Structures are given as C-alpha cells and as structure tokens.
Task: inverse folding
C-alpha cells in the first residue's frame, strides 16, 4: 500500500481546473489516480477538494491501523 494524495491545477484551453490525486492498489500495484474536482476559481471546487482529502486520510488511517494490528500480532507470535 502506498499512501499519498494531493491536488494539481491543470490548464486546459486557457482555463484552470483542479484535480485531486491519490494512490490506489490496482492488480497488486500502486497507481496514481486523478479525479476532477472542478474549475479553479470555484468555492464549490474547494469544498469538494477538502472533502476528498479528508475522506482519503480517514480511509488511509483506518487501513494503516488495521495493518499495524496485524504486524503487532505477528510480532507477538515471535515472542511465543
């Protein structure tokens, strides 16, 4: 699992648009995925971007906690 996300502003035909990117596991490999959020100067775009970032970190935190539990169990088994 590769953890990471962010956003990028891309110019298309003279206008700027915001894309949220994050990593996803696809076929056992980490892939960077871009999601369109909207035009750069839109308050709604900023709101969607903030929600996407918050949701990504919540999911990543849950997954990391789950993996940590598995690692702790494996380490405990070494002690037995």
Result:
């Amino acid at each position: 699992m590769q953890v990471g996300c962010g956003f990028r502003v891309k110019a298309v035909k003279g206008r700027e648009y915001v894309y949220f990117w994050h990593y996803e596991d696809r076929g056992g490999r980490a892939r960077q995925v871009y999601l369109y959020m909207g035009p750069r100067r839109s308050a709604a775009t900023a709101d969607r971007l903030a929600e996407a970032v918050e949701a990504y970190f919540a999911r990543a935190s849950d997954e990391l906690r789950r993996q940590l539990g598995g690692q702790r169990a494996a380490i405990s088994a070494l002690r037995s």
Remarks:
- The chain has one domain: 5-79.
- The first strand starts at residue 5 and ends at 12.
